[in-house]
Amino acid sequence: MLWILQNTVVTLLRDKGGANAVEYALIMALVAVFIIAGVLAMSGAIGTLFNNMATCLGDTPGCNTATF
């Protein structure tokens, strides 16, 4: 019975499958950080663009199409 437990523990210690999962999780976290940083960096420009579009839709004479 003891040798079965020993073999199970040794097998679990030799298994490297969890390391791959951790590496992929770190890569995904890094990609998510870059996506969030990009969205935050562009949020002001996108907000300005949508505000200008709303102005053009609501008040055509006051529309400045140079911002598109």
Topology of this protein?
Layout: H1 2-14, H2 17-58
Structural description of this entry:
This protein has 68 residues and is mainly α. The chain has one domain (2-67). The chain is built from two helices and no strands. The longest helix is centred in the middle third of the chain and has 42 residues, at 17-58. It starts with a helix and ends in a 10-residue tail after the last helix.
Given as residue ranges, the uncertain stretches (5+ residues, pLDDT < 50) are none
Roughly how many Å apart are the termini? 76 Å
Count of discrete structural domains: 1
Shape descriptor reads rod-shaped
Give, in order, the helices and strands: HH
Number of helices: 2
Sheet with the most strands, sense and barrel status = none
Tally of strands: 0
- The overall pLDDT average reads 81
User: In which range does the helix fraction lie?
Assistant: over 70%
Secondary structure category: mainly alpha
Portion in beta strands? under 5%
Radius of gyration: 27 Å
